[in-house]
C-alpha cells in the first residue's frame, strides 16, 4: 500500500488514522525524551500501528505572582506554517543535505534515505 505523505499528515493532525482515515485511534506509552516525546498509536478499525513523534515548538509562561512585568518570547517557532511542505522541499535539495547532518537524529534518518536514492 502506498500512502501520500500530505494525506497522512492531514489525517494525523485531526487525530485520525493515517492509513484509513477513521477516528478510532488509541494512544499508548507516551515517552518523554530530553527535547521531544514519542507515543505509540493504533487504529481500532484497520489495525494499523505507528509512532508519533513530538517536539517542543513553543513555551507558554503563566504569571506566578510577579506584578507589572510584561514580556514576550521572540522567534517562536509556532508561527512557521507548512512545516511538512518545507521539509519535503529541503529534502529534495540533495546537494545541501550533507550539511544538515547532525542537527537532529530523525532528520539524519530522512537525509540518509534521500541520499541513498
SSE arrangement, N to C: HEEEHHH
The number of distinct structural domains comes to 2
Strand order, sheet with most strands: 1-2-3
Strand content: 15-25%
Oligomer: single chain
Structural class: alpha+beta
What global shape is seen? globular
Low-pLDDT sequence parts: none
The profile of the biggest β sheet is:
3 strands, antiparallel
Instruction: Kindly report how far apart the N and C termini lie.
Output: 20 Å
Separate helix tally: 4
Mean pLDDT: 81
The helix content is 25-40%
DSSP summary, beta strand count? 3
Q: Which value, in Å, is the CA radius of gyration?
A: 18 Å
Entry summary:
The chain has 117 residues and is α+β, with helices and mostly antiparallel strands. It has two domains: 1-56, no CATH class; 75-117, no CATH class.
Amino acid at each position: 500500500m502506498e500512502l501520500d505523505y500530505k494525506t497522512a499528515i492531514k489525517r494525523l493532525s485531526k487525530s485520525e488514522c493515517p492509513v484509513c482515515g477513521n477516528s478510532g485511534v488509541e494512544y499508548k506509552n507516551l515517552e518523554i525524551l530530553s527535547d521531544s516525546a514519542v507515543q505509540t498509536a493504533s487504529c481500532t478499525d484497520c489495525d494499523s500501528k505507528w509512532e508519533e513523534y513530538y517536539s517542543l515548538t513553543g513555551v507558554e509562561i503563566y504569571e506566578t505572582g510577579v506584578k507589572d512585568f510584561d514580556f514576550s518570547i521572540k522567534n517562536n517557532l509556532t508561527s512557521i506554517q507548512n512545516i511538512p511542505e518545507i521539509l519535503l522541499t529541503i529534502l529534495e535539495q540533495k546537494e545541501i543535505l550533507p550539511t544538515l547532518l547532525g542537527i537532529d537524529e530523525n532528520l539524519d534518518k530522512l537525509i540518509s534515505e534521500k541520499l541513498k536514492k
